[in-house]
Write a structure and sequence with these properties.
globular, GMP Synthetase, Chain A, domain 3, binds zinc ion, Rossmann fold, 4-stranded antiparallel beta sheet, alpha/beta, 12 helices, 23 strands, single chain
Length: about 450
């Protein structure tokens, strides 16, 4: 494993950097940040944004000096996407598409260096998971439709010297055939599919618990709660598979992902690739450990460089040394979307915590939230739950929510079919779980 992963980093150098003191890591980051800013400021968007502003990047003495710079929002990307594109100087080798809030997808170009950066990101993450060069990984995520995560996992695994199996999603029979023939130790996939796959195996007489799979790297929904304990779905996955779960988080726009290590203490922040800040509503920095909006500066991106991108996701940083021996900070699970923040009887909560609580009621198959503006301020929340369980009613579900959330939102109980019909009425790819009618 001596190949240069990402200039100038070999795996050995990357591992060494993670064992340095936090001060030395921050010093290395400051050097990389200045290089990144110098490059990003050459794009039309930032040239315009910084015109007439007197910001002396050379005089930065600390990575926290980045807070002097203005934010970049998702709306900026949607409206001025092409102005971030720096790939006319270095041609793109691949592209990703963001879903976009305006309906128009934005093209994110990846140069050859960006693809190496992407592979480095995932190779080091897999190393932290415990993957080594004699391992095989079953990738049940898609690599097509300009979806970047699948490509990241594939190139990370192969760069590390491991074997990647591009199986894609769905078709449990085929997946189990591959598991039996090729004996991969790791599966990468979305939590709900990994559950479906395990249940299909059990239904077909497979000893899922004793299969060769020892690690589940998950994408999409987090398998951990804010306090880093497993969600109900996460612990169900670990029990079904007899395997450990590793949650990962990333987004197309910022070309970087965070993955948990074996210590399960949040997704490690790659110091070469990322400056992460947590800010309050006014954009002020929040101390480590407190929840706020995740702001990222993905360093070293060539084709689509960003500075202080407000993700709209809520999370917190864990900064105590990690039991795995790496001294890098970690980003906890996404606790919710800023736009979906609920204010209920003096408490702030996010739909995610309601869904995590509902996960514990195994017979709940479909649930969604309706929110309206309450008279006199705050939000009026109705949780609509679909279930066919005769032992379950609105009151029992409200009790469950109260035990978890310390507030008692109103629950309406309906059948699975009715709940499902509402959630899929827009015909989109994913069922809608949050209906916002607030004024
Ligand atoms: Zn760790």
């Amino acid at each position: 494993m001596n190949t240069e992963l990402y200039s100038p980093y070999r795996l050995e150098q990357a591992l060494r950097l993670r064992q340095e003191s936090p001060e030395n890591i921050a010093q290395e980051q400051l050097f990389l940040l200045k290089k990144h800013l110098e490059h990003a400021l050459n794009t039309p968007f930032y040239r315009k944004l910084y015109a007439g502003k007197d910001i002396a990047i050379d005089s930065f003495e600390d990575i926290r000096d980045i807070s002097q710079l203005p934010f970049t929002t998702r709306q900026d990307i949607d409206l001025f996407g092409e102005q971030f594109d720096n790939s006319d100087k270095t041609p793109f080798r691949d592209i990703a598409l963001t879903s976009g809030t305006t309906g128009e997808p934005v093209i994110v170009p990846y140069t050859a260096a960006d693809l190496k950066r992407l592979a480095f990101n995932e190779a080091v993450a897999f190393y932290g998971v415990g993957v080594r060069d004699n391992d095989a990984l079953l990738l049940t995520v898609t690599l097509d439709r300009c979806f970047i995560a699948g490509l990241a996992y594939y190139s990370g695994a192969t760069t590390l010297g491991a074997s990647a199996i591009r199986s894609g999603p769905g078709q449990p029979a085929r997946q189990w055939h591959i598991i039996e023939k090729l004996q991969p130790g790791v599966i990468v996939g979305v939590p709900t599919f990994l559950k479906e796959l395990a249940l299909w195996g059990l239904d077909h007489g497979i000893d899922v618990h004793n299969s060769p799979i020892h690690s589940l790297v998950t994408i999409g929904e987090s398998t951990r709660k804010n306090d880093l304990t497993l969600t109900s779905l996460g612990s169900e996955l670990e029990k079904l598979w007899g395997a450990k779960t590793f949650s990962s988080y990333g987004a197309t726009e910022f070309e970087t992902a965070f993955c948990e290590c074996r210590a399960s203490a949040g997704g490690h922040i790659h110091p070469e690739l990322m400056i992460v800040e947590i800010v309050d509503d006014a954009g002020h920095l929040m101390p480590d450990g407190e929840a706020g909006e995740i702001v990222v500066t993905p360093m070293g991106v060539e084709g689509f460089p960003l500075i202080r991108f407000r993700t709209g996701d809520i999370g917190r940083i864990h900064s105590t040394p990690c039991d795995c021996g790496w001294n890098t900070k970690r980003l906890g699970p996404v606790e919710g979307r800023l736009a979906q923040r609920l204010k209920y009887r003096g408490t702030t909560l996010y739909p995610e915590s309601i869904f995590h609580a509902l996960q514990e009621l195994m017979s709940v198959k479909h649930a969604y939230i309706e929110v309206r503006s309450a008279e006199g301020g705050g939000d009026d929340i109705t949780v609509v739950v679909g279930s066919e369980d005769p032992a379950l009613d609105a009151e029992r579900i409200e009790d469950k929510l109260q035990a978890h959330l310390r507030v008692r939102p109103k629950v309406t109980y309906t059948t699975n079919t009715e709940a499902c019909a509402v959630m899929t009425q827009d015909g989109g790819r994913k069922p809608v779980k949050f209906f916002d009618y607030r004024s």
